[in-house]
Design goal:
Layout: H1 2-11, H2 22-29, H3 64-77, H4 140-143, H5 146-149, H6 158-166, H7 171-179, H8 186-199, H9 207-212, H10 221-231, E1 250-252, H11 268-271, E2 279-281, H12 303-311, H13 322-325, H14 344-354
Antiparallel strand pairs: 1-2
Length: 357
């Protein structure tokens, strides 16, 4: 029991924050002013950071034709017809209630096969290039077809799927009405799925989004102080900035499990560059409190655990012998990751802010 209580204490720190000091109140109130007067974030010199901003200000105008494309793309996204056994849709791994992730450590796909990576949120995929954790897909239309063909995910072939859609009792008429073409093809399917995924940006209406649009009542003073920590002592803006809260880059967080059972070499599988071993795409933090478990392998079931590990500087595996020391493939944790020395109260304020995103 004592061990369980200790583990709970280490992983959970909600409601431990003390009342803000006058200095902390002043720091929090800086963010009520124009964004141009906000204090600069604490980032390493080489980081080309971008200021935080709203996603939808103003909301984009969408034509009736584009609305029809989005609606048909949504129908396809939620239709298990796209999988070989007609039992798995794109939405199986990207559920709206989980900010379009799935709430599982790793996803279950075709024939109940287990994937080896966590299903990321696709809410901000419309802002991304080099999609998937390893960046193997160059754009959203290319990405849209990968899960259909993956033997672990939907287990189908594109040619067979196109044939199935063309023989469907209603899809040919729907495609003709929306796209004015007689025959369904691969590019149409990819474009429609991509249109729906890109449209998800406009659904985000969180307290942080409203705050960035100018509603200063959207964040409490404690959450604004968490924003200050996010930008400064917690060093989050080394990797999480701009409207998507992602640098769109790849980093090694020390979770490679090199030459061990759970080994995942990440970006290296795409580039074959030894410098990319163990690197994974920086995910967006939009609605991050809804997208757990966290990390590419779903390692952390609690967001508090993620904060605790970043506070410790994450993992920095070191060679244990001469062979490993001489190994050119031995992974190196990104030097951006350093111990932060956040107090328990500061970690709580940071958590409060992350829940607004």
């Amino acid at each position: 029991m004592r061990i369980l209580l200790l583990c709970g204490y280490l992983l959970s720190f909600s409601h431990w924050a003390l009342a803000l000091t006058p200095e902390q109140l002043q720091q929090a109130d800086q963010y009520l002013a124009s964004i141009n007067s906000w204090p600069a974030p604490h980032t390493d010199p080489a980081v080309q950071w971008q200021e935080l901003s709203a996603l939808n200000s103003p909301l984009p105008k969408v034509s009736a034709q584009e609305k029809a494309r989005i609606a048909l793309g949504k129908q396809l996204f939620f239709d298990p017809l796209l999988s070989k056994n007609k039992d798995i849709s794109c939405a199986n791994c990207h559920l709206p209630e989980h900010a379009f992730s799935d709430g599982k450590k790793v996803s279950t796909g075709h024939l109940n096969r287990q994937g080896h990576r966590n299903s990321p949120s696709i809410l901000t995929s419309g802002l991304s290039q080099q999609l998937f954790w390893d960046g193997r897909s160059p754009n959203l239309t290319d990405q849209a077809l990968h899960p259909i063909q993956d033997p672990v995910e939907m287990g189908f072939s594109i040619n067979q799927l196109i044939q199935r859609l063309n023989q469907h009792p209603t899809y040919p008429q729907q495609f003709k009405r929306v796209l004015q073409q007689e025959t369904i093809n691969q590019q149409q399917l990819a474009n429609l799925l991509a249109s729906f995924q890109a449209s998800l940006l406009t659904t985000i209406n969180t307290p942080f989004e409203r705050f960035m649009r100018g509603d200063h009542t959207a964040l409490t003073v404690s959450e604004r102080y968490g924003l200050h920590l996010f930008r400064t002592k917690a060093r989050c803006m080394n990797c999480h900035f701009g409207p998507a809260l992602s640098d769109q880059q790849f980093h090694n967080l020390g979770l490679t499990y090199y030459q061990r059972y759970y080994e995942d070499l990440g970006r290296f599988h795409v580039t074959n560059n030894p410098q990319d071993i163990g690197k994974f795409k920086t995910p967006s933090l939009r609605l991050v409190s809804h997208t757990g478990p966290w990390m590419h392998n779903g390692l952390f079931p609690k967001l508090e655990g993620v904060i605790n590990m970043y506070n410790a500087g994450m993992f920095h595996p070191q060679p244990k012998n001469a062979r490993q020391a001489a190994d050119p493939f031995f992974p190196t944790t990104d030097p951006l990751l350093q111990p932060l020395e956040l107090t328990l109260a500061e970690k709580d304020y940071l958590l409060q802010f992350l829940k607004t995103l």
